[in-house]
Design goal:
The complex is a heterodimer of chains A (about 325) and B (about 350).
Chain A (H helix, E strand, L loop, with lengths): L5 E14 L2 E14 L3 E5 L6 H8 L7 E6 L2 E2 L5 H8 L2 E4 L13 H11 L6 H14 L16 H13 L5 E5 L7 H18 L2 E6 L2 H7 L2 E6 L2 E7 H6 L4 H9 L51 E4 L2 E3 L5
Parallel strand pairs in A: 3-8, 3-9, 6-7, 7-8
Antiparallel strand pairs in A: 1-2, 1-4, 4-5, 9-10, 10-12, 11-12
Helix pairs in contact in A: 3-4, 3-5, 5-6
Chain B lengths: L3 E13 L4 E13 L3 E5 L6 H8 L8 E10 L2 E2 L5 H7 L4 E4 L13 H12 L5 H14 L16 H13 L5 E5 L7 H18 L2 E6 L2 H7 L2 E6 L2 E7 H5 L6 H9 L46 E5 L2 E4 L23 H11 L1
Parallel strand pairs in B: 3-8, 3-9, 6-7, 7-8
Antiparallel strand pairs in B: 1-2, 1-4, 4-5, 9-10, 10-12, 11-12
Helix pairs in contact in B: 3-4, 3-5, 5-6
The chains are: A alpha/beta (about 325), B alpha/beta (about 350).
Chain lengths: ~325, ~350
Amino acid sequence: MAENNILLEAKNLKKYFKIPRGNVHAVDGINFRLETGRTLGVVGESGCGKTTLGRVLLHLYNATDGQIIYRGNDITHYTPKQMKSIRREMQMIFQDPSASLDPRKSVQDTIGEPLKIYKSFSDKASYEKRVLEIMNMVGLAERYVSSFPHELDGGRRQRIGIGRAIATNPRFIVCDEPVSALDVSVQAQVLNLLMDLQDSQNLTYMFITHDLSVVKHISHDILVMYLGQCIEYASKKELFQNPLHPYTVGLLDAVPIPTLTGKKLGSETIMKGELTSPVDPIPGCRFAARCPYATDACKGEDIPLKEVSPGHFVSCTRY
Amino acid sequence: MSDTLLDIKDLSIEYHTEFEKVYAVNGLSLKLNYGETLGLVGETGAGKTTTALGIIRLLPDGIGIVTKGSIQLDGTDMVHESEEKVRKLRGKTVSMIFQDPMTSLNPIKTVGDQIQEVLRAHDRSMSKAELSRQVDEMMEMVGIPSYRKTEYPHEFSGGMKQRIVIAMALVCEPKLILADEPTTALDVTIQAQMLGLIRNLQKKLNTAMILITHDLGVVANTCEKVAVMYAGEIVENGFAEQIFCQEKLHPYTRGLFNAIPKLDVETSRLEAIEGMVPDPTQRIEGCRFANRCRFATPACSQEPPYVEVENGHFIKCHLFSGENRSGKTIPETVSGSLTREKSVVSEKEVS
C-alpha cells in the first residue's frame, strides 16, 4: 500500500450529540484509511452511526474529537471557507431520492447547481452542454432535461442525485444507502451505474448500507459498525469467508437467502435482543449484552481493534 | 367443507381519482387452502397491497373499486357482502399486519388496551378477567413480558412494536393473515427474529398466510407457495420448490433472481432488468412485461396464456405455450454480463 495513495484517513474520529440525558456516542473512535479508487463499505443496523460517520467526514457535522486527513492535509478544523475549496471533490448521494431533490428544480437546475456554485463553465451553451454530458453519464435520456422530480420514478430520481454528485468531478463520494429505497430490478441498474462511474472517473466511495448482499457486491473493504464503534474491518473476501466478530457472524446469519437449500431462519443462530442505548454507554464491549460468548473480560474497558491476520481487524476478547 | 379458504377469480381493481383511472389489479386469480402460506412477490406498484386490501375490503371508499371478478373468503363473498358482516370478519376470519409498525399503533392507548380492543370487538360478553388473561397469553406468545401491557407504543423499540402488531392480528386466531411487508421497516437481525416468530405462530395456530414482500429471500424462508406479480397480474404461480429451483421461470421472475446481489456467489456485474414498470394508468394489450423482456417476440402483443408447466406451477408467458411447453428454449442464465448496448438492441427489436 503506497502511502501517497491514501485519499482519506480517519483517526480516532468521534462525534457526540448532546441531549438532556447525556451524550449520544454516535461515532466513537473510528479509524480507517481509504485508498484512491476503492470502495469502503460501512455496514450496521439503524442507529449504529453509519450516516453520522459519513456526514462527519464531509464536514456536514463537526467532529467532536479525532482527525480527518484528506490527501495529506488535516481538514478536521477547516473553516467553511476553506472547506468550500475542497468540497467540490467530496460529494454525497443521499438515501431518499424524493426527499433529497428540490421539487421546484428541473433536472437541469439540479445537476447544474454545483456547476454554478463553482462557476465551472464559460457561457450558457457550455453549461447546457455539460449538463447533458452528465445526464448521459448517469443514463438519463436528454428528453428529461426540463422534467421535475415528481414526473420521474425512483430510479431516475436517484440518477439525478448521482448526476448532481458527479457534476463537479469529485474524487470522493459518500453514498448513503443510495439503493435502499429502490426495487431490486432498479437497484441493480443503479449499482451497475455506480460501479461503471467508479471505473471511468476513478472515484473513491464510502458506501453506507444495511444490506449485506449489496455491500458485498460493491465494496473492496468492509467496516462493520456497532453502536458507533468499528468492531470488524477487513477486505470483502476475508470478511465474508472468515467473519470473526460474533456480531458480524450473527448479521450474516440473519440475511434471508433466496434459496430453499440454504439454512432457514428461526433457529438458535438468530441474534437475540436489540441495540442498546447509545447514550453514554458504559465502557466495555457494546455488543456484550447480546453476545452468546460474553464473559467478564468483555466488561470494564473498551476492547481495542486487533489485527488478527494481515488486514483483518476485529475488536473482540476472543481473538 | 372444502379445502379452499380463499378463492379469487378474475379480480380487477381500479383507483378512480379526479383526473385519471389507475388499473391496479388486472384479472387476478388465486386460490389458497386452509393453513397454507403464500408469498406474494413483486415490485412497487405491482398491485400486491391493493390485492390484500381488496381481500379484507379496506380499499379507500369510492376511490378503490372492484370492477370485475369475485373474492370468496371462507364462504363469504367479500365483494358484495354487507359492510356490517364484513366488519365482523375482519380480525376474526382475516386480519392484516401492516408494513410500518410505527404508524399502525395508536400512540395514546396502552398496548394492552389495543390488543384487548380486537377481542372486545368480536365478543362483547367476554369478562374482564378473561380479556386480561387472553391479552397476557398473546403477549407472552409474541415474546413480550405481559407486565409491559400498561406501556404505550413509544416505550417500545421498532421490533417490539411489530410484535405488538402481530399480537393484535393473531389474538382472535384468524383463518387468514395478510402480512404486508411485515419486516421491511426492520433491521436484518430483527427481521430474522420476526420471520421466525411469524412462522412459528402460523404453524401453531394453523393459520393461512399471504406474505407480501419484494424480498425473495424472505419468501424462501417462510412460504410454501409463491405468486409473482407484475403490473397488476400474477405472472407466475407455484410451489416454492418449483420457483426456487429456477428451472422453468417467467422471464420477469428470472430477472428478479438475477438482479439480486448474492451473498454466496461472486458476481462482477448484476443483470439488471432494463426499463421501468409500465404506467398503471394505461391499459396494455398483450404481455405487460414485453417491453422489458429479452425474449419478446411479435406474439407477445397477444394476451399470453397461463401454462401449467409442471404440476401446480403456472406461468403466464408465450414462451411456454404450444410447442415450447417444456420451456427448453429459454437459456438458464444469459452467459457473461449483459451490457447496456445489448439490452438497448433487444428493446428496439420489440418496438
